[in-house]
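Provenance and format

Records in this collection were gathered into a single text stream. Each protein contributes a sequence line and a token line. The two records reproduced below are adjacent in the stream.
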Amino acid sequence: MKRLFGVSLLVILGGFVFGVEQKSEIDLTLVRKAVEAANQIFVDASLRGDSAAVGALLTDDTFLLPPAGRMVQGKNATEEYWRTTWTQLKILDFKMTIQSLYGAGDLAYEVGNYILKFQVQGKEGMDEGKYVVVWKQMADKTWKKLVDIWNSDLPTQ
């Protein structure tokens, strides 16, 4: 009896896990296309200093984790972060490269590198580094940024 119960439980749990795995599969090729398009919008918005365009890429409960700064939570606060940043720093050139993309269910995460050139108080500079973005698929099937963190590969000055 115990053996039958154990086998039955194993079959039920196995079916549950198999069912979850099937539901969690996503087409990473489609996700990658959506992320690449969103990244291009982010790059273009950065070059224009357009925080509203960035806001359109965010979930309402987004988290921004900037280097050497406090965590920013929420779409409005994140838009304000970028608005303030871009009044002090003009982006001259910006490239993002996806290194890896993984996902399951309604979440995907992107790992990549960036290179950017900027101007602060008339002086040009550059930065290169890495980033991780967690993307969430919304009810309308669009992908929006839930978590965004990045940091420089260059030594601090």
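Adjacent record:
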Amino acid sequence: MSRNKRAVLTAGLFVLIVLLLFVATVLIVRWPNSRLAATEQYAVYSAYLESEITENFHDYGTGRGFVLLIQDKTTLARVAAPRFRRLRTDAPALQDATLINFVAENLVSQVLAKQFRLPVNYELLPEEQLVKPGSSAEYVTVSRVGFNKDLSQALFYTEHICGLCGGGGYVLMERRFGQWRVKAFLSTWVS
């Protein structure tokens, strides 16, 4: 092997090692514990949905027979460059680690489990049942949750679909004294 090829291979290997060390450092330093995050995401969803049901009950229905419908799989929330900048501008409290984790978590969808703690009955239904022709089902979708390293900040995307109306947006939440609270709702659409 010639001296130039060996130098190029050595330099390439060095760059690859540095890149791997950088990625590993970011993951270790900034990534939340995945087992704790998997459990905590339901606390985040539950706190948000409970506040929505309590504060906006007219949008979600009333009465003893009311059942909240939730799509059984997370939606894939993409953050395009303009929206990325808007999130940073409109929610200055949003930490970089939370946003990076949110983007990474939303590369794949996840089947939801019946682990929500809500003041109303709820059902998890597949998208096909919620959007079938002639259906005017009122339901909620959620993306996967991105957390900061210490699981004190969370970001996810949600939509509330109600037949001919609805809305969607990013929800930034913070945990204070063990309770999740909405810090900001950044609307992306309303109908």
